[in-house]
Amino acid sequence: MGAMKTLIIGAGIGGSVLALGLQRAGMDFQLLEQAEAFKEIGAGIQLSSNAVKVLDRLGLTDALPKFCVEPDAHKFQDWSTGETILRTPLCPDVLDVFGAPYYHAHRPDLIAALTEGLDPDRVHFGKRVTEVGEDGDGVWVKCADGEEFRGDVLIGADGIHSVVRDSVCQHAPARRSGYVTWRGVIDAADVADLDVPISSYIVMGPKLSFVFYYVGGAKRINWLAMGQTDDEKKESWSQTATKDEVLAAFDGWYEVPRRFIEVTDQPFVTALHDRDPLETWINGHIALMGDAAHAMLPYHAQGAGQSIEDAWVLLRSLELGADAPAKGLRRFEALRKDRADRMIQHSRDAERWYHMSEPADVESRNARFRRYNEDAAKFTPQQIWLYSYDAEQAALGTDEDWRALPAW
Ligand SMILES: Cc1cc2nc3c(=O)[nH]c(=O)nc-3n(C[C@H](O)[C@H](O)[C@H](O)COP(=O)(O)OP(=O)(O)OC[C@H]3O[C@@H](n4cnc5c(N)ncnc54)[C@H](O)[C@@H]3O)c2cc1C
């Protein structure tokens, strides 16, 4: 093990990827998680090729196909008819063009694949961090149970309500988007009569959208709906909703979304929040990554993807500059902040694109989408900017091809 010791706060997808990367690089770390075990909510996740490239580098190339599903395309559909207005290819085209596939997965499967090989002596569950800081002897962490940890570098991978963030920059509350997301996972067998192909679906309606895709060996379907409600909802993944409440929002929609909601055992609801870009992610030997640094709305399905990219660039910045970790953290921030902050803004913009309700706006959006369909261009410029990013090249500074792309 190298001499530098990294403390990681939070074993979500971002913290787990960083821990696995440090372990594979033979670097010293301790991973502190408030929960009693590795856990991810029982929902789906989209993993675009920019994220899968990192998972490949972590040695998961053979593990991923065992639980991931490969959709053939993104299909943007009309809410009342189900007509596909825009189809952009995913598998196998994304792999051919960008060097890694586009996957859909069930989150618990992904977190299991990331964490099953972690050294248990380096993972500390039931450690709710209450305070962190730095003094002449390095960084320190205090936990609610009174235990303290010390190290050389501290990484806050502790999500949208990060405690570490308060030690890095001025406190700024999360921003309510005004939308909630309802979600559920269903057995594909219960809707087999609908004969839904294995694609990635985004159904756009007035102030309401419905996203769905297969997970778990295509035996299950994950759906999520973004809409508005009069009730006050929490930013919590465990808050339940009633089927009637969700169905009422989808009155008049085409059959597929309504059937999915009807066969769902228990829908959940979460208020959607993001955060304005922070002034900085770094204070001395303390850094933020993932949602702690750049929580974004889910419309481009990039929050975890950006967290995974962060983890790789951070790992490599620490590894390549092990004799000067504070400089490594600043390099990490310089390499990552612009891209992640742009995704915060693009994800906000997409909220409007998905939910247009004025007929003239809908018509001009759909006309633009149809033009893409007819064009020879297979991927949109935005997808190219997103999917072609290679975190290893970014870390080495050899990503001039990607940097030469028009900024999105
Ligand atoms: C509806 C919805 C759909 C989404 N879909 C996608 C998608 O398809 N693709 C995608 O890439 N992203 C998606 N995202 C975003 C994605 O879920 C997040 O960006 C991602 O999970 C962030 O990972 P993270 O590791 O940074 O943080 P988190 O997943 O929030 O992990 C933080 C960890 O830190 C722990 N923790 C927190 N505080 C403390 C503390 N004080 N002490 C100790 N431990 C602590 C938590 O228990 C948790 O384990 C979606 C988000 C939403 C809301």
Describe what you observe in this structure.
The chain has 14 helices and 18 strands. The chain has 408 residues and is an alpha/beta fold. The chain is globular. The protein has one domain: FAD/NAD(P)-binding domain, CATH 3.50.50.60. The strands form four sheets. The protein has a seven-stranded mixed sheet, sandwiched between helices. The protein has a six-stranded mixed sheet with strand order 7-2-1-11-18-17, with helices on one face. Strands 8-9-10 form a three-stranded antiparallel sheet, with no helix packed on it. The longest helix has 30 residues. Bound molecules: flavin-adenine dinucleotide. Flavin-adenine dinucleotide binds next to helix 1, strand 3 and helix 9.
Low-confidence parts lasting 5 or more residues at pLDDT below 50? none
Instruction: State which percent range the strand residues make up.
Output: 15-25%
Based on CA atoms alone, the radius of gyration comes out at 21 Å
Distance between the termini: 40 Å
Into how many domains do the coordinates divide?
A: 1
Widest sheet: strand ordering: 5-4-13-14-15-12-16
Largest sheet: 7 strands, mixed
CATH topology: FAD/NAD(P)-binding domain
Provide the list of bound ligands, each named once: flavin-adenine dinucleotide
Helix content: 25-40%
| Overall CATH architecture | 3-Layer(bba) Sandwich
Shape: globular
What structural category do the secondary elements indicate? alpha/beta
What's the number of helices? 14
Beta strand count: 18
What's the CATH C level? Alpha Beta
